[in-house]
Amino acid sequence: xxxxxxxxxxxxxxxxxxxxxxxxxxxxxxxxxxYGGVVPELASRAHQQxxxxxxxxxxxxxxVMKNELAxxxxxxxxxxxxxxLVGTSFAKGFALALGIPLIEVNHLQAHVLALFIRExxxxxxxxxLKTESYPSESLPPPPVFRAPSFPFLCLLVSGGNSQIILxxxxxxxxxxxxxxxDAAGEAFDKxxxxxxxxxxxxxxxxxxxxxxxxxxFSFAKPRIQGLDYxxxxxxxxxxxxxxxxxxxxxxxxxxxxxxxxxxxxQTIIDILLQKLVKAAKKxxxxxxxxxxxxxxxxxxxxxxxxxxxxxxxxxYIPKLEYTMDNAAMIGIAGYYKYLKGDFAGxxxxxxxxxxx
Length: 356
Ligand code: KG4
Prior knowledge:
- By secondary structure, the protein is α/β, with parallel strands linked by helices.
- It has helices spanning 40-62, 81-98, 107-113, 184-194, 202-209, 232-248, 252-283, 298-311, 327-339, and strands at 2-5, 11-17, 20-27, 72-77, 102-106, 152-157, 162-169, 172-178, 287-291, 314-316.
- 40% of the residues lie in helices and 17% in strands.
C-alpha cells in the first residue's frame, strides 16, 4: 500500500506491506522558517513540488513497482485545506489510474496508530531468540515489536491537539479529555517565539531544557475540572513574566535561556501528566501511550517512564520518526481500514477540522 501525508508542512510518502513498513520518506519545508509559522499558501505550493519525487523515492526504497500496489491511503484531515487538497488529489489520481482502492485516513487516528508500525527487522514479542541465530554479544538481538493491548489510553500531543484518548480498538477511539484552548505544541512554540527562538520552538526548548533548572521559575497552571486541558493561561503567564523581567534587565532571556526553557517544559509536562494520571485512575487502565509531535520531547518521555515505574503502568512511546507528521502512520491506519474494506469514493473531499 502507498500512503500519502500532506496535512501541514511535511510532504510524506510511505510504502507498507500489511503492517510492516517498507519505506517512509518525509520532505520538510524550510520556506516557512523566516515567517515564524506555517504559511498555508506556501505549504500547498511546496507540496505540489515535492509530492511526485517523494512518492518516487518511497517506492524505490521499498523496492515496489506501482503496479504491485494494492491500495492508496491518504490523509483526509484535519489540517490545512490547501495542503490536504494536494495529497487528496494525488491519491485520487493514483488510485484511479491504477484501478486500486482509495482509503481516507483521519490524521489524529493515524498519530495513535503509529504505535503499531512494525519494522522489517523487528522480532515478535515472546518469540524465543535462538542462541545460534544471535550468538553472544557479537550480534545484538533484533528489536522486539511491542504494541499496546486494548483498551489503552493515549495522550495525543501535537501542534494542534492535546487529547486523552481511550483507544478501544484500532479504529474505535473516544476522546475523554482535550484542550479547551491552545494545544501543548502551541504552548511550546508560542513561548519559544517570545524567547526569540526559531519556529517550531518545541525542539529548541527541549534542547535548551537539558542544561537548565526546571524548578527555577514557576508559571501558571490551569485549574479546570475533569480531564480537559488548557494552555492559554500558561502562555500569558510566561509572556507577562518575561515582559516584567525585561524591564529590569534587557538581557534577562539571554542570561536565563536554559532555566526558562527547563521551567516552561516542566510546567507543560506537569499539566499533561496530572490529567493523564487522573484518566488512568478513573478508567483503571494501566496501558498508557503517548503520540504526536510533542511526544518527541525528551522530558515528557522520561517523565512518563518515571510515572510508569511508580504507578505500575505499561508505557508505549513511538519511535522519534513516527511522532512527527509522517506517511508511515497513514499507511498503518490505512492497513486497518483495508482489512475492513473501508474504501473511499472518488468524490471524497478533504476536511480541515474533524474529530476522531
Ligand atoms: O504532530 P506534529 O508534527 O504536527 C501536528 O500535527 O500538529 O507536531 C508538531 C508540534 C510542534 O508544536 C512542535 O514544536 C512540537 O510538535 N515538537 C516538540 C518537540 N518536537 C516537536 N515539542 C516539544 N519537544 C520536542 N522535542
